Amino acid sequence: MKKLLIVAALLFTTGCVSQEEQSEERIVTTSVAIAEILDELGVDTVVGVPTSETYTLPERYDGVDEVGMPMNPDMEIISTLNPTLILSPNSLEGDLKERYSNSKIDAAFMNLKSVTGMYKSIEELGALIGKEEEAQVLVDDFKTYMEDYQEKNGDREGPRVLILMGLPGSYVVATENSYVGSLVELAGGKNVYTGESEEDFINVNVEDMLEKSPDIILRTSHAQPEDVQVMFEEEFSTNEIWQHFDAVTNNKVYDLDNEYFGMSANFNYQKALEVLDELFYGSK
């Protein structure tokens, strides 16, 4: 049987999907952000969605079977749904690719580490599942928005920014390779950990952060935002090193809504850029 293979330089990778399967799709997604993309593309053949206590799934998929948490989907449940394709973010490819392969289910990993990566993946997904026109509408809207945004904001000198991604009980530093890092870059900010690593997130001691001398500190969370905020407040009040940061003494520490500043790119990027514009430049 003739196979269709789409591979786009780590932006979107997939196994083999037959032409016959394209017309009889049964899609499982392990990501809320990808569920939102499928909703925008008008895809009604989703048979499995992630379990999420933090984010709300599109109404289109009310009543669809849940397949577990994004980082640890339940392969037994997924197998019973007889999917033709599983869609997950490529940030989890290292954890999930072998599991999908062992289950002999075709899988694709979408790049949700940046806004531009997301739209490139939308374009490729549209070609894969027969939603080219719907995908092109979304891509064209994005291009128009970014042209206008860059024309308006392209000459502004942004601040030096430290980005902290909180987890319950701990936190890491977000590099420019993370989604939040890509938003800071689009808004003209200068991530103080640009060029430090190819990873999205890195572990760094507070003394090293102090040497980077950020103008602004942004704090967001992967999950359980209320618990993470309490954790951050305790860390900043009990670890006296933070009191030596100019960003702290100048009251330039900001907690961000993880609905806009989470782990994966999503359609809230315009709102996120508005928030950063206000924090960086004092303008909406």
Molecular structure report:
Keywords: Cell membrane, Heme, Iron, Lipoprotein, Membrane, Metal-binding, Palmitate, Signal, Transport. Its cofactor is heme b. The chain has 284 residues and is an alpha/beta fold. It folds into two domains: 3-147, Rossmann fold (3-Layer(aba) Sandwich), CATH 3.40.50.1980; 160-281, Rossmann fold. The protein is built from eleven helices and 14 strands. It has a six-stranded mixed β-sheet, sandwiched between helices. Strands 9, 10, 11, 12, 13 and 14 form a six-stranded mixed β-sheet that branches. Strand 4 (27-29), helix 2 and strand 5 (46-49) form a beta-alpha-beta unit. Helix 5 (115-129) runs antiparallel to helix 6.
Question: Which descriptors would you attach to this protein?
Answer:
globular; signal; alpha/beta; 284 residues; 39% helix; 18% strand; 11 helices; disordered N terminus; six-stranded mixed beta sheet; heme; Rossmann fold
Q: What is the residue-mean pLDDT, rounded to a whole number? A: 89
| Class from helix and strand fractions | alpha/beta
- Order of strands, widest sheet: 2-8-7-4-5-6
Whole-angstrom Rg:
20 Å
CATH topology of the largest domain: Rossmann fold
Based on the coordinates given, report the CATH architecture of the largest domain.
3-Layer(aba) Sandwich
Number of helices: 11
- Count of separate structural domains: 2
- CATH top level assignment of the largest domain: Alpha Beta
The tally of strands reads 14
Straight-line distance between termini? 54 Å
The backbone outline, from C-alpha atoms, is globular
User: For the report, how would you describe the main beta sheet?
Assistant: 6 strands, mixed
The unreliable regions are 1-11, 13-22
**Could you tell me the strand content as a percent range?**
15-25%
Order of helices and strands: EEEHEHEEHEHEHHEEHEEHEHHEH
